[in-house]
Amino acid sequence: MAGAGARVGLITALASRADIPIFPVLGVGGRRAAFALAALPGVRVVDHPRAAALLLVVGRPTRALLRPLLVVHDLLPPPRATVWWQVGAGGEDLVAALPSTVIATTGEVAGLRTVFGDLVSGRRPSDRPALPDIEPAPWRGIGPYGQGGSGMTGGVPFGRPLPSRSADPDGLELDELPLHVGPLFPPLPPGLELHLEVQGDVLRRASVGENPFTRWPGDPALGPLDTSDFLGALDAPVMVAHLELARARHHLRWAASAVALHGLRAEAHRLRHLAERVCVGDHPSVVALARRLGRCRSLASTMAGIGVLDGGDAPPGPVARAGGRGHDARLDDPAYEGLGFEPVVHEAGDAWDRFLQRLGEAAQALELAGRAGDRVRSPGPPVEGPRGLLDASEVPPSQKLLSLLPDLLEGQEWGDAMTTIISLDIDVEEAAAGAEVQALVEP
Amino acid sequence: MSWSSPPVAAVSIGVVLAVGAYIVAVTDRALGALVSKQPLRLGHVFAGPVRDGALLLVTRRSMTERPDTEAWALAPALVTAMAAAAVTTVPFAPGVVVADVADGIVLIGAAFAVVMVGVYLHGWSANSPMPLLGGYRFIALALSYEMPLALVLIAAALPAESLSVVAIVASQDDLWNVVRQPLGLPIYLVAGLGLATWGPLNMADGADLAGGTALETSGPARLAWEVARRSVVAAVAIVGAAVFLGGWQGPLLPGAIWMVLKALALVVVMSALGHRVARVRLERFVVVAWALLIPLALVDVFVSGALAL
Question: Tell me: the pLDDT tens digits for B81-130?
C-alpha cells in the first residue's frame, strides 16, 4: 500500500510540474487580453478542451456565448478548473453559471500555476459538470424507426442530425451531413459559427450563424478590440510610429495563427514571441523572416490557389491589396507624407498572397515606424487598420469579410476551407461592434 | 540469452519502443525549441514528456455518446503492437534479433499496413465528426503511403537475395543501401511520415480538425495514443536504419551503438521535417504519390533488380 501511495505521489508531483494545458475562450475584449498568453512561461495552449486542464475565460462572456461556454467546460476531462481573466466591467452573472471560477490577474502566470498545482495535487476539487447529462432533445421511440423524426433520416438522435442524400459535382448520390461548428471551435476565429453541409470532407454549403457578440439591451459596451489602437486614432492624435508598430504586431500574430494551422507549431511560437517584443530595430530581422517564409514552398503549395478573392470584391485593406487593388488610406493621410509610403500589392488574391501581403506589410510597418520618428497623426481622415479601412461611417472589414464567407467556402475541402477562413483575418467582435455603429448611423 | 524466448522478446521490444517513443518526444521538443528560437531548457526537453505523461495519467478518460468503446481502446494498442511487430525482425547487433524470420521484410510491410487500420479505427470509434473526418482522410491516403513503402522495402531486399532483415543488413557490409539505392530512403521516409501521422503528413490529427482522430481522447487513452504514434516513428526509424543505413554495421563502435545512432539520425530527420515542412494538401499529396513516388519506387525496384542479377 505504501509503495502504491508513493507511486501515486510521484506521478502527482510530476504532473503538477507539467506545462499547464489551457483552452482559452475569448469573450468581449478577449482577443487583446489574450496576447499575453504567448509570453507566459510554462503554459501550453491546446487545440481542444479535451486536452486541457484549465479553462481560461478571457474577457466578458456574452449571453449567446454562455451555452457554448458551458458545453466547452464540460468537455474538459476531470480534474478541471476554470480561471477568468476579467476585462472591464460586467460578466459576473454569466461566469457565475460555471461551477466554480477563480478570478486571476490578467496576463500573469502565477494565478494559473497556483490553480493548476492545487488541482493536480487534489487540494482543489475538480469542477463538477455545468450542464445536466441529458438528451439535447427528446427522440427515443419517435418516428417510424425510433430515430426521432419522420421518413428515413428525420430526427436528431443523440442531438445529431442524420445525413441526407444529394448529388456531388460528379452526379454521384452521396451522404450529406449537416454540421454546426463554432462559436468556440478552435481553428475558427473566436465567435464564428458556421452551419455546414458536408459530403466527406467537402463543404457543399455554408452559412454564417448569429454573431454571439451582438449586444443585448443593458449589456456593457464591446471591446477593447484588438484594433483599438487604430480606432483610437479616429478621435485622438496618435504617433505614427505607435500605429505602425501595432500594425506589425498584428500581422505577426496573424502569421503565427496561419502557420500553426498548417502544423508549423514551433514557427508559430517564434512568431508569437516576436510579435510581443518587436520594435523598430527589428526591421531587418522581420524582412529576413518574411523572405524565409515567403520561400517556404510547402506553405505556398498549401495556400496557393485557395480562397481566391478578387481585390474588387474584398473590403479595402490587406485582403483587397492581396488581390491587386492598391488602395490604402495612408496614401491620403497627411501624416504619412514624405515617408516614402507605397502600398504593398499582390495579384493572385489567394490565401498565399494574403500571407505574403501581411508579412510584407509587417516589415513595411517597421520601416515606416523608423522613418516616422516622433511624427503625430491628427484625427480626421480614415485610418488604415490592420484589417482594412476604419471609418465611423464605414462597415468594418470583418463584417464585409463575414458576408463573403459562404460563397468562398462552397465546394472547398475542409483543410482548404480552414485555410481560407484564417487567411481573411476575421474578428467577429469587430463585426458586431461595426453593426452597432451602422445601426446608429442608419437608423 | 535467447532473444526469441517470449518473456525476453516481450520485455526487450517493450523497452525498445518505450525508449524510442521517449527519444522521439525529446528530439521533437529540442528541435522545436531550436526552430522557435527559444532557450533550450534541459528540464523542459528531457523531463517535459514524462511530466506531460504523468498529467495524462491523472486525468480522466473522456467519453462520447455511443462510441465503439472496445475499438477505441484497441486502436492505440493495435498501432503500438504493429510497431512492435515490425521491430522484432530487426537485428540490433550481430545475433541480437527477436525474430529472424525468413520473410521479415514482408512482415514489416504487413505490420505497417495494419497500422493504417489502427489509425482509422481511432477516428471512427469515437463517434464524433472531426475524428471521423481524420480517419477518412487517413484511409483516403493509405494506398498512397503503402504502395511506395512496400516497393522500396522490396527493392532493398533484392541485393540480399533474401526477405530476411538480418540478411539485408548483412548484404550492406560493403555498401549501404542508401548509396546503392538512392531513391529508397527518401521515399521510405515520406511514406513513414504518413504512416506515423507525423509532421507534414499528419492529416489524420491535423490542427485544422482541432486534433482529428485524437480530438475526443483524453487521460490515459490520450497517453496511449501519443505513445503509439511516437512508437511508429521510432519503428520507422529503426527499420529504416537497418534496411537502408547498414543496421549495426560500422567501424570502431559496438554494433548496437551504431544502430542507435543511425535510428536517432532518422528520428532527427523526421522531426526536423515536421518542424520545417507545412502540412500538405490531401489532394496534392495523392497526385504526388501516384505521379511521382510510386513511379520512382518502381524505378528503384527495376534498377535494383537489374543490378542484383
Answer: 999 999 999 999 998 888 889 999 999 999 999 998 999 999 999 988 89
Q: Chain B, 195-214: which have a CB under 8 Å from a chain A CB?
A: 199-200, 202-203, 206-211
Give me the interface pTM, i.e. the ipTM. 0.91
For residue A16, the model assigns a pLDDT of 93
What is the C-alpha separation between A366 and A375, in angstroms, rounded?
14
Q: Is A285 on the interface with B (CB under 8 A)?
A: no
* CA dihedral (B262, B264, B265, B271) positive or negative: positive
Cell numbers representing residue B224 in the block: 496511449
**No. of H helices and E strands in chain A?**
15, 13
Task: Tell whether B222 lies on the interface with A, counting CB pairs under 8 A.
Answer: yes
Task: Say yes or no for a CB contact (<8 Å) between B32 and A266.
Answer: yes
Scan residues 362-421 of A and list those with Cβ closer than 8 Å to B: 413-416, 418-419
CB-count exposure of residue B251 (10 Å: 0-12, 13-18, 19+) = exposed
How many CA atoms within 13 Å lie on the side-chain side of A283?
14
- Is A232 within 8 Å of A198 (Cβ atoms)? no
Asked if B50 and A14 come within 8 Å (Cβ–Cβ), the reply is yes
Checking if the pLDDT of A191 tops 70, the result is yes
Distances B70 to B39, B83, B124 between C-alpha atoms, Å: 43, 20, 12
CB A197 within 8 A of CB A205: yes
B203/chain A closest Cα distance in angstroms: 9
Calpha distance B100→B91 (Å, rounded): 8
Count H helices and E strands in chain B, helices first: 13, 0
Pair A41, A12: CB distance under 8 Å: no
Chain B residues 139-198 with a CB less than 8 Å from chain A: none
- Nearest in space to B169 (alpha carbons), one of B261, B79, B238: B238
The distance of A277 to chain B (nearest Cα, Å) reads 13
Does the pLDDT at position A27 exceed 80?
yes
Secondary structure (3-state) at A191: coil
Q: Looking at the complex, report in whole angstroms how far the Cα of residue A111 sits from the nearest Cα belonging to chain B.
A: 19
A-chain CB neighbours of B133 within 8 Å are 200-201, 414
Q: Which of A47, A187, A263 sits opposite B279 (nearest CB)?
A: A263
Mean pLDDT of B209-221: 94
Strands (DSSP E) along A305-432, which ranges?
Answer: 376-377, 383-384, 389-390
pLDDT at residue number A8 = 74
pLDDT band (50, 70, 90) for residue A174: confident
**Chain A contact set for B284 (CB, 8 A):** 301
Do B119 and B75 touch, CB atoms closer than 8 A? yes
Cβ separation B208–A302 shorter than 8 A: no
Whole-structure pTM value: 0.92
Greatest Cα-to-Cα distance within chain B, rounded to the nearest angstrom: 59
Q: How many CB pairs under 8 A join A and B?
A: 148
What are the DSSP calls for B66-99, one per residue?
A: S--HHHHHHHHHHHHHHHHHHHHT--SBTTB-S-
A window 290-329, beta carbon within 8 A of B: 296, 298-299, 301-302
CB atoms within 10 A of CB B107: 18
Give the sheet arrangement for strand A173-181, strand by strand: A164-167, A173-181, A194-199, A202-208
Q: What is the DSSP string of A89-125?
A: S--HHHHTTSS-EEE--TT-HHHHHHHHHHHHHTSSP
- Given a cut of 70, whether residue A254 has pLDDT beyond it is yes
CB contact under 8 A, A298 and B280: yes
Query: C-alpha cell of B169?
Result: 543488413
| Three-class SS of B160-185 | CCCCCHHHHHHCCCCCCHHHHCCCHH
